[in-house]
Amino acid sequence: MSHKASNGVSCSSKILTVDNMNPNVRRVEYAVRGPIVHRALQIEKELKEGVKKPFSEVIKANIGDAHAMGQKPITFLRQVLALCTYPELLEDNKFPDDAKQRARRILQACGGQSVGAYSASQGIECIRQDVARYIEKRDGGIPSNADNIYLATGASDAITTILKLLVCGEGRTRTGVMISIPQYPLYSAALADLGAVQINYYLDEDNCWSLNVAELKRAVDAAREHCNPRVLCIINPGNPTGQVQSRQCIEDVIRFAKQERLFLMADEVYQDNVYADGCKFHSFKKVLFEMGPEFSDVVEMASFHSTSKCYMGECGFRGGYMEIINMDPEVKAQLTKLVSVRLCPPVPGQALLDLVVNPPLPDEPSYSQFMKERNAVLANLAEKAQLTEQMFNTIPGFICNPVQGAMYTFPRITLPQKAIDKAKELGQVPDMFYCMKLLEEEGICLVPGSGFGQREGTFHFRMTILPPTEKLKVMLKKISEFHQRFTQEFS
Amino acid sequence: MSHKASNGVSCSSKILTVDNMNPNVRRVEYAVRGPIVHRALQIEKELKEGVKKPFSEVIKANIGDAHAMGQKPITFLRQVLALCTYPELLEDNKFPDDAKQRARRILQACGGQSVGAYSASQGIECIRQDVARYIEKRDGGIPSNADNIYLATGASDAITTILKLLVCGEGRTRTGVMISIPQYPLYSAALADLGAVQINYYLDEDNCWSLNVAELKRAVDAAREHCNPRVLCIINPGNPTGQVQSRQCIEDVIRFAKQERLFLMADEVYQDNVYADGCKFHSFKKVLFEMGPEFSDVVEMASFHSTSKCYMGECGFRGGYMEIINMDPEVKAQLTKLVSVRLCPPVPGQALLDLVVNPPLPDEPSYSQFMKERNAVLANLAEKAQLTEQMFNTIPGFICNPVQGAMYTFPRITLPQKAIDKAKELGQVPDMFYCMKLLEEEGICLVPGSGFGQREGTFHFRMTILPPTEKLKVMLKKISEFHQRFTQEFS
Question: A-chain residues within 8 Å CB-CB of B111?
């Protein structure tokens, strides 16, 4: 790849080029912040510079970023974080006592009583204990040990760390990792980066994106021909698909993982985001332990949670944790060593996590406001989940499963053959062509289904349900109009 | 590795064991948080439980963690961060106007005006612009472009990201990376993790740990026999060695990098930590551009900075940045894509970085207090640097170079042959044996020189100069007494 740069020097004289860089990095893709988002940012700049467009703002429904979409931070969380950051405020009467008490406890656990000190690499001990108590409460008393909790720089960090531990072998013995299709592209990106083999299993779109163990079996059997399947990744509630797994389904998955000797990774970052009637979040840990020691003594697992989703939406703090279960003690020592190289997760994110797992109690002064704010966020999300499904299902050519949980919808869209041909002509995948046109014409930024994976010949997009209700309604109407126009144009 | 676990089940039945885990991870070592620190934490617990020891507290001089050693946060930094975290405080009269103005500007650059929103993956644009202005000012007007600035989760994150880009090839074509010995073990850990080839070049202990280009040449020539040397890493001011490179030395290194076609990585996180008379920090960027277009148009480089060191010592926030120079635009696009997978660096750390590169101006209300606090920290460090060198050089068997910069001393210690033999008997490296004994007898936690690398047959330890002056004096005295006792015991 030799060509002239603007200064006339041949670029092939560079030490580092795309041809001699890390080939795994080249293979990494991450659609949630891919070319369409890049173009959305350009359009925003053009709008600022006064360029005329058929719209006055870009609505970014590409990423689960609640605060960017106008959701207000929960007062209690931010009060405690401000107190931890600037402890002089502990003398201020404006802050409630329970917020001060939480801040004092966190500061006492910090080196030099400052959130500016490094923490233990695994995370601050008293916060890990709070996480363990939270898990026990969530899971009806099943014990959780703080030694098995690792705090992290968001769940993404924890997920890639566990994947990294699990990768070994070459050729047919290379580690294979089973991921759902559609998937959250952190998984495919991390696997490309690590040079692991991606094993696709397909969710059943006709059955609310449910997971079918027969499909898992098909996928693992096929994969054993060319790699060593060792890991099964589950996202529940689903991203981008929004389904909530039944207890029975989780039991089947655990049984399958045991039988096929797969390390289970349960991505449960949307555990508080469940909206649909009759749906309930069941943690993999709880189901595993309810299945008895035959399973709970042997199935190796890691589960992941985050401060970025649920009612908090505090993405910028990069807080999260994982709980490891039945990990070989020697491997666990290796994990502890590995995370120590990066010193520690951001301490403000750790402090935030502590509040999430240890929120105000009914007899504390902040309780009623906290619950009011929290419930308002979740009720609003539930309303928007339903609104989106209903509206999409009125558009001819759209089929939209219920948004049972999480914060996305992943409707299936029919694209006319002429549009598919046109996209091919332009060297684009058809749903990218569709989403790019939607962005240019309506200022709406979605992510094409191809960025998450979908069955050959089907097309989708992922849209967050996060914009404020009125803006969401406008957006849904615009999408509807666009789709009908698009269908006509290419008929 | 098959053995019985407590429940009687053979551990060899685990899916993930040390024998089948990622072999690169197994090779990772990070002495700064290694076995000695593990033991220090145990001893702290024992003290709390009332176990009698010849000391009442463990002094942890193993890690550059200023706040943990009692350094107070800089008021202005924390005020702005508290305002960003809990914007209701913008109405509070207790906060100075310049702090409020900084906070408003940062919030306006955040999605939904919240530090809880994701930022652009490369970092918030106005902060990257402030970083570029800071670099220009530091470097006497040499231009810096915000497009070339990438914010990161501490400098460690940025360093491993650049190393990851550079790794390719197999066997004799595998990427080789030149690192100083002694080194900061992030480098050896990252290289092990990436499966890159570590190429050691030795700093000259007899000349204040200076870098000699003849030694670089020796190392690269030897390495070309078995790998493809592509990268040269420099730490200036030095960690663990505390030397500050002369302008001439930097020029020689740049000339060498150009000649040998090496990508330069300049770790400059201690750039404000320069204490010795006649020493001055010269950035690699500035020297590169002063050498003229013959160099500044072609030498590919990345330089790194952090919010964790200097006068701030805000390790817990995990803030940092890198500036890339002359990177191939296609590779830069790959870098941008790669960092997008982790979404963004922690936003509070980004905000903190903004204040570090854009501190109060002389006509602003916070200026005088800010300068007073900043200068007090740096003056105290300079005093402790000198004190440490002087004291160590009075101990028979110690040779200690001046601590010209950074925040560590790395004295050479003479160990009696009997102690070396005893260590071998125990299966320990001799300086680990020494440091472990010092920890057990005096409660002082240092890192053995072997964790950083040292010339065969020499022994050192790394000690931070961060404890408060009075505690540092006690510690130095205890080390002196211990060393004399140790020498006698093994004579």
Answer: 65, 67-68
